Amino acid sequence: MEKLPKKLRQKLSERLMNDAMRSLPLVDGLVDFSSNDYLGLTRNEKLSKAASDFLKIKPQKNGATGSRLLTGNHALYHELEMFLKEHHRSESALVFNSGYDANVGFFSSVPQRGDLILYDELVHASIRDGIQMGNAKSYKFAHNNLEDLNKKLMSFRAESRSDSEIYVVTESIFSMDGDSPDLKALANLCSENDCYLIVDEAHATGILGEGRDFICQLGLEEQVFARIITFGKTLGCHGAAILGSEALKNYLVNFARSLIYTTALPPHTIANLLVSYRFLKDFGKEQCKQLQWNIDFFKQQTEELGIADLFIGSNSAIQCAIIPGNANVKSMAAQLQLEGFDVRPILSPTVKEGEERLRFCLHAFNTKEEISRILLLLKNLWNERV
User: What DSSP element (H or E) covers 342?
Assistant: First the structure.
């Protein structure tokens, strides 16, 4: 018997031919311009000790022992969700095992048959997967284009049944471009058209809104049906939560399969989250300022070096230089890595063909010298190719 079916071998061969084969890389100690650890909390040894001390005060089992609906809903879950709803100014919070689980659970269960989902064309794969698992019709709108969204809203409103609901989906900071929609205008558009707005806050959680999220920073909490916040980036931990009404939480507990049919997070994970959030409340403001300084300095350096045109416009910690072609961007990333910098190539089909890129993730701990050095290297490598 063949070790792999023929159709699967063919798909792998196509990836090889397109120079798009994925593999699991090892973390190799290079200067970090790649991880989502924006404030460096995973590097903070005090937090690890604080989590251990927390569990000494409130002893817990090593594992969750079951799903949250059976034996896994230990007391720390309640403590965390109470904190989250207060901190993120929401009526309720429901913790999931990951951002992927949260998005799949929400979009596969909330929009119903006969409803409509309009989503930004660049939303995360987990949102798309959840939509595909559900029964609602879905259509994409042009990236951050409210005019295109409005046209689609008008068209579908005229054709839809009276009991049809419309859900509009976007991200506060897009993971592959680093840009943001006009959330105030988007929220107003949804309010005017009786639509339910859902915002994935994965890359804004813990950074914007004084350690909260982008919606909190803009004061739009009452205009958003649901927010997805994640803990594997700025918080340096694991898991995610859906913020919304108490009624929405009750619905998800009853119908979100990615919550119902999986083992809960272990107590030490929840303890780490509580400790990290408390650290952010006490000390995060300075680190957020340092991160913003590094973002501003990075953009200033691209201007001074004459390479700003390579980059997608972004005011976030995600800065992407377009280097068309999988082979080209992989080669350039490899050369930067040889110089000691961990920058990863983003290949097609993850992004559109011709829009392959180097994705620079900035952190509070990156130094001025590191930023200057890597951008000078990038400029020299680009000049060698043109």
Answer: strand 341-342
- Round to whole Å and give the CA distance between 351 and 321: 13
The Cβ of residue 305 has, within 10 Å, a number of other Cβ atoms equal to 16
The secondary element (H helix, E strand) that includes residue 34 is none
Separation between Cα atoms, residue 43 and residue 351, nearest integer Å: 30
Number of other residues whose CB lies within 10 A of the CB of residue 265: 26
The type of residue at 302 is T
Phi and psi for 65 in degrees, rounded to 5?
Answer: 75, -5
Q: What is d(CA 242, CA 263) in angstroms, rounded to the nearest whole number?
A: 18
> Looking at this protein, which amino acid is placed at residue 35?
S
Report DSSP letters for 328-339, one per residue: HHHHHHHHHHHT
Q: Is residue 188 very low, low, confident or very high in pLDDT (cuts 50, 70, 90)? A: very high
CA dihedral 261→37→268→94, nearest 10 degrees, is -40
Pairing of the two strands 344-346 and 357-361: antiparallel
What residues are paired with 321 via a beta bridge?
311, 358
Query: What length is written for the chain?
Result: 386
Taking the C-alpha atoms of residue 82 and residue 249, their distance in angstroms, rounded to an integer, is 13
Q: What are phi and psi of 196, to 5 degrees?
A: -95, 120
* Per-residue pLDDT reduced to its tens digit, 327-378: 999 999 999 999 999 999 999 999 999 999 999 999 999 999 999 999 999 9
C-alpha angle 269-236-342 in degrees, rounded to nearest 5: 135
Look at residues 42, 35, 34, 104 and name the one whose alpha carbon lies nearest to residue 259: 104
**Residues 6 or more apart in contact with residue 150 via CB below 8 angstroms:** 189
pLDDT digits (tens, 9 = 90+) for 73-125: 999 999 999 999 999 999 999 999 999 999 999 999 999 999 999 999 999 99
Q: Which domains does the chain have, with CATH numbers?
A: 30-41+284-385 (3.90.1150.10), 64-265 (3.40.640.10)
Mean pLDDT of 297-304: 98
The two three-digit tokens of residue 247, written as one number: 């009624």
Q: Which pLDDT does position 386 carry in this prediction?
A: 61
Query: Is the pLDDT confidence value at 1 over 60?
Result: no
Element at 116 (helix H, strand E): strand 116-120
The most distant pair of C-alpha atoms in the chain lies apart, rounded to whole Å, by 61
Q: Are 139 and 118 in contact (CB under 8 A)?
A: yes
